[in-house]
Every structure is written in structure tokens, then in C-alpha cells.
């Protein structure tokens, strides 16, 4: 378990399954879990912190994000929060939320964003903090990548990614999988070999070699390096479109890169 100090809250990161990250957010009297794939590691972490779980925040319905919901609710009687759009698929949901809703974890404001694309009801949670916001983005934005489009169109996903790019670039993003090195390998071979990307590869390689996560990272680095966000950069977009002989609008370029990643 790793921990990250923000000013008003602490985030604990717990590895689970093959490559998932589960998170606990400790804010005053609140202890919230984001996307419990399974209950056991969360129960163990609550024991270590010596406090009960008060909330579950789900980003989307996939089993590797909600699998622990019912067992944790039974044990802690915690409140389960998830997307109103997808309430029928969130086990044990108590509170249904969507774009623009603001929750409170003790004194901390949590803003909800609708970011469909990976699933039709995917949401993100943004925790406001003087020392840098925290973004919990589930399977939408990854280190150097984005989620597969299981239930959404490229237009939807691009719109969702643009919404995340508009957040404070100092924000740290806490996504649900450790995919960074694979994504960077794809990026280096198929999309860009910029010096920023080489630096990101060296850093990630060292982190993984030392048994450490590459997540959380900053939005700032993703905006510069993430191949799924690069279509927002006009110069990159025109070069990429010209060399692949496709239209040079952002959605066309994003769609092409996403499909190349699917076939990688
Ligand atoms: Zn998923
Ligand atoms: Fe997942």
C-alpha cells in the first residue's frame, strides 16, 4: 500500500488482481474506497488504518471496479455511490449521481463528471485541494493511454478526454490499472518518439523495476505525452493526419490512434 498526501486528505493505493489499483481516500471522519474490485484487500487496509469504511465511489459498472461492493456494504454498512445513468448495473447503489453533482467527504468537495466512452455510464470524481486536485478517472484515462471503447463512440470518448484535459494540469490522476509501460511502448512505436515520451519511458521503467507504481501521475505530463490526448495538439494532429492520409480533425486522429492501439 502506498500513500499520497494532499492538503485536506490522504490517498492510499492498494494493488489488486493482476494490474488493478484500488484506492482509499481518508478525509476527516470519512474513509472512502474508489472501485473495490474485491473486498479482502480493502478490509485489510481498513484494519491497518483502524477505521471503518464510510463510502464506496464507483466509476463504472465493470466487475473489476464493483466486485467488492456488496461484501463491503455488508461489513461496514457504507454508502455506495455511482452513476445515475448506470444505477441498474452498480451492485448495492445507494446514491445516484451525475455531471455537476458535488459530494462531501467530510470537509472535502468532490465534483462529479460524466465521462462516457469506455462504458456508457462512466463517471469521474475530482477532489478539490489547495496542494493540487485529485482525479479518480477509473478506466477512462490511463498512464499514456485510455480505456477501450466498449460502450461508447470515439466522439464520446474524445469529448470525455477533453473534459479531463480542462482540469487543473497540476492535478494528480489516480486511474484503475497499471498499463503505463505497455501504453508507452505502443506510443513510441506507432505515434511519437518525442523527448518527453523518452523521459516518460525511462522514468516508468525505473519505477516498475523498483516495484513502484507509475500512478498517480500529473495531468500536465499526460497532456504532453499521452498518445490519446495528443490529437488536441494542432501541430501533432496535422503531422499525424498527413503521414497516415486521414482527415486532420481531432476525432479522426483520435479514432485512428485508438484503433492502432486495439490492433497493437
Ligand atoms: Zn472497465
Ligand atoms: Fe477496469
How confident overall, as mean pLDDT? 97
How widely separated are the two ends? Answer: 32 Å
SSE arrangement, N to C: EEEEHEHHEEEEEEEEHEHHEHHH
CATH architecture of one domain: 4-Layer Sandwich
Adjacency order of strands in the biggest sheet: 1-2-3-4-5-6-7
CATH superfamily (homologous) name of one domain: Ribonuclease Z/Hydroxyacylglutathione hydrolase-like
Ions, cofactors and other bound molecules: zinc ion, fe (iii) ion
- Unreliable segments of 5+ consecutive residues: none
CATH class of one domain: Alpha Beta
Helix content: 25-40%
Give the tally of β-strands.
15
- As a whole number of angstroms, the C-alpha radius of gyration is 18 Å
| Largest β sheet strand count, sense and barrel closure | 7 strands, mixed
Number of helices: 9
**CATH structural fold name of one domain:** Metallo-beta-lactamase, Chain A
Judging from the principal axes of the Cα atoms, what is the shape?
A: globular
Taken as a percent bin, the fraction of beta residues is: 25-35%
Structural class: alpha/beta
Amino acid at each position: 500500500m502506498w500513500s499520497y498526501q494532499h492538503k485536506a486528505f490522504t490517498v492510499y493505493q492498494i494493488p489488486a488482481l493482476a494490474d488493478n489499483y484500488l484506492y482509499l481516500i481518508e478525509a476527516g471522519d470519512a474513509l472512502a474506497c474508489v472501485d473495490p474490485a474485491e473486498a479482502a484487500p480493502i478490509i485489510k487496509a481498513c484494519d491497518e488504518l483502524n477505521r471503518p469504511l464510510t463510502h464506496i465511489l464507483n466509476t463504472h459498472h465493470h466487475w473489476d471496479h464493483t466486485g467488492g461492493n456488496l461484501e463491503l456494504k455488508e461489513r461496514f454498512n457504507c454508502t455506495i455511490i455511482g452513476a445515475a445513468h448506470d444505477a441498474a448495473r452498480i451492485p448495492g447503489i445507494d446514491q445516484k449521481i451525475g455531471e455537476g453533482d458535488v459530494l462531501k467527504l467530510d470537509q472535502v468537495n468532490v465534483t462529479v463528471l460524466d465521462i462516457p466512452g469506455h462504458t456508457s455510464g462512466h463517471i469521474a470524481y475530482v477532489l478539490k485541494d489547495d496542494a493540487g486536485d485529485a482525479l479518480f478517472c477509473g478506466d477512462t484515462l490511463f498512464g499514456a493511454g485510455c480505456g477501450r471503447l466498449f460502450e461508447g463512440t470515439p466522439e464520446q470518448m474524445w469529448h470525455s478526454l477533453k473534459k479531463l484535459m480542462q482540469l487543473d494540469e497540476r492535478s494528480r490522476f489516480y486511474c484503475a490499472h497499471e498499463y503505463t509501460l505497455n501504453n508507452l511502448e505502443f506510443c513510441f512505436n506507432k505515434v511519437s518518439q518525442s523527448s518527453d515520451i523518452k523521459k516518460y519511458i525511462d522514468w516508468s521503467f525505473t519505477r516498475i523495476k523498483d516495484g513502484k507504481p507509475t500512478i498517480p501521475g500529473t495531468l500536465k505530463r499526460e497532456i504532453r505525452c499521452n498518445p490519446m490526448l495528443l490529437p488536441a495538439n494542432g501541430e501533432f494532429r496535422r503531422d499525424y493526419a498527413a503521414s497516415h492520409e486521414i482527415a486532420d480533425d481531432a476525432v479522426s486522429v483520435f479514432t485512428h490512434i485508438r484503433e492502432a492501439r486495439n490492433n497493437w
